């Protein structure tokens, strides 16, 4: 503002600085309103630059337009921005864009801060910005050298004893890491490697801290943490030296340097990339220590039970086995006794039956004997007499006495036919009163 | 072996014991091994179960460098 013709010092205003040649004092609100009016008089133009620090709010979308020589804060009404997005597609940080608009100034109030911005009414995407193109080239180069997988191949202990953390000393990320570790119930050793995390000194300092963490030894895992920021703020995590150092480090590195939408080259080369420092801490300690203690206790009890049961059950089995022969013997003995009793009883029954049978037979015999004796006494003399008579009837002597003779051969055999007598020369003739020799004159015909 | 490897082996041992297929000799051997592994795991957990120890890297580096310098001077 070249003059004070439009501004008049208020009559209630305090006096100005003694000796000052400058006009005023004026009320600041009045001056701010005049400034806005003057800025709006500036020619409306088109600017070209790289879009950075994109921050949508409820009514407006804020961002910065940058190039190698300077930057301008920009703001667009939500409706204008959505019309642009509808026409050109998603607009991202790092893009080269042409914006149309003019200078504006929000004068603020007693409760609201003032701000200058280039009020954007239209936008055209001119191409991927140098920044994104450069990062993309470097990513491809690292990938071609196999540096994006080296960290992922490192073994990472689930329960580290020592964790190295590289972060800003006064940043919120430090508290978030501690909160994540507390949530895991972890209380080992933390080695803090404090370093700036967003200016031009950041990348070399972080690189050195990581190298030192690896060099001191005993660090099981390292975390690089910072809160989210614009891509421009996170540029240090796309530094080639830092990324190559991490890729070749022997200690696994967990990166947590931005939000979901911000992916740096460090995220690509690290063993793991996490969205928040809290998540990174939980990733560094893979087990919930309190839960692990409980599980270990349960496992110990199960093992003890198994050991105890294995011995006890087998001891019971052995005891049962050792009792088995005795029981078997006892069973056999009982069985034998039973059989013996049965045999004895059977024998007694048999003897009794035999005895009874014998008694019956004896009685029968007795009866028969008595009957036979009685019979003999009556019948036998008559029978003997009859037999004697029958026998006497067959006595040859009796026949001889009736005048017959018995002819015998030389050897005494009876000759009962003439034919047999003709075969002999000498025979003997028996009569009732004696025998005489005789000669056969008529020989066989 | 790492903590997680020890835990994995303990789980394997318990699975084997649960199957009931281990002989008495195997059971006793497995229980002995399992108890030793649990003891090792407990030591690991104990190491991170006390009070959090916080060290500053630059102090650690300075101390190590000092020790190295002394060692060189002594040698």
Would you kindly provide a written description of the structure presented here, covering whatever features stand out?
The complex is a heterodimer of chains A (445) and B (75). With 445 residues, chain A is of the alpha/beta class. Among the domains of chain A are: 42-128, OB fold (Dihydrolipoamide Acetyltransferase, E2P); 146-284, Rossmann fold (3-Layer(aba) Sandwich); 398-439, no CATH class. Chain A is built from eleven helices and 13 strands. Chain A has helices spanning 28-40, 78-88, 130-144, 172-183, 202-216, 240-248, 265-269, 277-284, 289-393, 396-401, 418-422; strands at residues 45-56, 60-67, 70-77, 95-106, 115-128, 162-167, 189-194, 221-225, 253-256, 272-273, 406-408, 426-430, 435-439. In chain A, α4 (172-183) runs parallel beside α8 (277-284) and α5 (202-216) packs parallel to α6 (240-248). The termini of chain A are far apart. In chain B, 23% of the residues are buried. The two termini of chain B are 36 Å apart. Chain B is built from three helices and one strand; from the N terminus they run ααβα. In chain B, α1 (3-19) runs antiparallel to α2. Chain B has 75 residues and is mainly alpha-helical. Chain B has one domain. The chains are: A alpha/beta (445), B mainly alpha (75). Chain A binds chain B through residues 155, 157-161, 164, 178, 181, 185-194, 209, 212-213, 215-216, 285-287, 289, 292-293, 295-296, 299-300, 302-304, 306-307, 310-311, 314, and chain B through 2-4, 7, 10-11, 13-14, 17-18, 22, 24, 27-28, 30-31, 34-35, 38, 41-42, 44-45, 47-58, 60-61, 64. β7 (189-194) of chain A pairs parallel with β1 (53-56) of chain B.
């Amino acid at each position: 503002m070249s003059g004070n013709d439009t501004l008049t010092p208020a009559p209630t205003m305090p006096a100005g600085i003694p000796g000052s040649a400058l006009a005023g004092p004026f009320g600041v609100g009045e001056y701010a309103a005049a400034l806005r009016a003057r800025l709006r008089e500036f020619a409306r133009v088109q600017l070209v630059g790289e879009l950075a620090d994109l921050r949508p709010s409820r009514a407006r979308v804020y961002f910065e337009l940058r190039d190698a020589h300077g930057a301008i804060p920009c703001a667009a009404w939500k409706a204008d921005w959505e019309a642009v997005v509808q026409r050109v597609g998603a607009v991202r940080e790092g893009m080269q864009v042409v914006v149309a608009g003019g200078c504006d100034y929000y004068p603020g109030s007693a409760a609201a801060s003032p701000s200058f911005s280039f009020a954007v009414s239209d936008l055209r995407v001119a191409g991927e910005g140098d920044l994104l193109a450069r990062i993309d080239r470097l990513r491809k180069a690292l990938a071609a050298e196999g540096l994006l997988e080296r960290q992922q191949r490192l073994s990472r202990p689930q329960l580290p004893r020592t964790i190295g953390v590289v972060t800003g000393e006064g940043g919120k990320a430090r508290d978030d890491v501690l909160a994540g570790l507390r949530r895991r119930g972890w209380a080992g050793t933390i080695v803090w490697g404090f370093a700036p995390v967003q200016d031009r000194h950041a990348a070399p300092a972080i690189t050195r801290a990581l190298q030192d963490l690896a060099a001191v030894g005993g660090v099981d895992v390292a975390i690089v943490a910072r809160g989210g920021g614009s891509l421009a703020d996170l540029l240090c995590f796309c530094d080639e030296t830092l990324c190559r150092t991490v890729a070749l480090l022997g200690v696994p590195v967990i990166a947590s340097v931005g939000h979901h939408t911000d992916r740096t080259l460090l995220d690509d080369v690290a063993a793991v990339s996490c969205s928040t420092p809290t998540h990174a801490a939980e990733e560094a300690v893979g087990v919930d220590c309190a839960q692990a203690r409980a599980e270990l206790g349960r496992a110990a009890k199960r093992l003890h039970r198994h050991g105890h049961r294995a011995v006890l059950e087998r001891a019971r089995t052995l005891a049962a086995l050792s009792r088995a022969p005795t029981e078997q013997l006892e069973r056999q003995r009982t069985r034998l006794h039973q059989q013996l009793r049965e045999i004895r009883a059977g024998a007694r029954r048999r003897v009794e039956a035999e005895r009874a049978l014998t008694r019956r037979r004896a009685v029968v015999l007795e009866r028969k004997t008595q009957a036979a004796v009685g019979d003999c006494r009556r019948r036998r003399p008559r029978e003997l007499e009859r037999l004697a008579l029958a026998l006497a009837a067959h006595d040859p002597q009796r026949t001889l006495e009736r005048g017959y003779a018995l002819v015998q051969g030389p050897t005494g055999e009876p000759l009962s036919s003439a034919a047999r007598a003709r075969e002999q020369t000498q025979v003997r003739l028996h009569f009732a009163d004696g025998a005489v020799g005789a000669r056969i004159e008529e020989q066989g015909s | 072996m790492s903590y997680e490897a020890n835990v994995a082996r303990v789980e394997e041992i318990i699975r084997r014991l649960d199957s009931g297929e281990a002989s008495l000799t195997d059971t006793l051997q497995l229980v002995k091994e399992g108890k030793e592994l649990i003891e090792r795991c407990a030591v690991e957990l104990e190491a991170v179960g006390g009070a959090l120890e916080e060290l500053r890297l630059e102090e650690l580096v300075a101390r190590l460098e000092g020790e190295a310098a002394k060692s060189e001077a002594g040698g």
